[in-house]
Amino acid sequence: MRKGKSDISGWLVRRASWHAWAATGAVLSAHVVAVALHTSDGGMDNAIVVRAARTWLDGGSPYADRHFLYLPSAVFAAVPQTLLPADALRVLVPLTVSVLLVAGWACALRVHGVPWRSRLGVLGPAALALGFAPFGHLVALGNWTVTAAAALPLAVLLAARERWGWAGVVIGAALALKPLLAPVALLFLFARRWRGLAAVVLVPAVASGGAALLMPDPAAFVTRTLPFLLRGHDGFVRLYEASPVAVLPRLGVPSPVAVALSCAAAGAGVLAAYRRWSSGFPGPLRLTETAVLLMLSAFLVSRPSYDHYLLVVVPLLLAGLPDPGAAARGPWFWLALVPQAPGADWPWLEAVTRRSFRDCFTLCVMTASVALRRRRHLPLAGPEHFVAQRRGRRATRV
Residue 51: which residues within 8 A CB-CB, separation 6 or more? Predict the structure, then answer.
């Protein structure tokens, strides 16, 4: 990382003032208060999981609601919310989502060795809240995607510190709540970390298997939910899906062609992830970008694939901004984010049911920006680099 005045990374890693803390706190608090004032249950998506838990407590099957797409273990995780009044949920759910997003951001910073008290660390959440529309959508919906957004940076941080077993436990626990991070299992396969891979598989299997035995229809996830996912949901939900599999047919592309193109793009993304890992380029970028490419590749073909899924990968990429080799330093990464800027008017794309076209553009361009990023042999920006910088500044002042 260059520290010269012409390089913005020097400004980003310096310690933030109290004004930055106050600004970020105000922005995040405003999001929480706004959701609390405009919702009665803390968010539509969270309400689906809580309703499934109430159905189970009343003796029914949570999978009677076809929009409940989680593993059986998620039902038990939602049970505590059924004990809380609606007035508490409308505040606690957006607050919890915001806290988990900030926690994931803090872990992403530590992966790249960026101090969490730096300007990037403090202002990052405010920048995401103000300039990245999916942030507000996730807080408003209370979607459990936030568990993956917090778990992936934590798992990558543990892996960077050679604690692959615990990283597998973290990913497995996230899968037990929402099976979104399943593609990350390939990272453990690439690294040949079999203990971590076993944890990724066994933790959700044991948790969900035990939970399913306590339900009136133990096989409902397999007999109802999986077929629903494979069919691509119903016609209404399909309008919000961002993957090319769902978007291209809306543009007149035959469905078989759309599936073939999306699978080819996803396969290329996985190949790029493997090449990224196999390149052996040292530093945190190897881990983060391999994990990010695996997730983005899955989003290209997954059903569903929504805009707030991007929060699983974007913080990990943005946290690496001080590193000269990071994908976030490339122009195409920022071009991918342009359609996600709140407040911009997009002709013919302003309707809620058409925002998926913008989301698909972001998903495809971001995948390409990470997969095709060219690197030179640049100095690392790991934790030891920042420590050396701070020591150097102290010596200069003396």
Answer: 65, 68
Cβ-contact 94, 42 below 8 angstroms: yes
Measure the CA angle with vertex 312, ends 193 and 164; round to 5°: 15
Query: What is the rounded distance in angstroms from the CA atom of residue 173 to the CA atom of residue 151?
Result: 8
Closest CA to 155 of 180, 135, 181: 181
Q: Tell me: the pLDDT tens digits for 221-249? A: 888 888 777 765 566 677 788 999 989 99
SS3 15: strand
Tokens of 18: 């109290």
Contact between residue 94 and residue 44 where contact means Cβ atoms under 8 Å apart:
no
Complete DSSP assignment for 237-262: HHTT--SHHHHHHHTT--HHHHHHHH
Question: What residue type is 261 in one-letter code?
Answer: L
DSSP-assigned letter for residue 17? P
Cα distance between residue 344 and residue 352, in whole Å: 14
Distance (Å) of CA 202 to CA 182, 205, 206, 208, 270: 12, 5, 6, 10, 24
The pTM for the full model equals 0.90
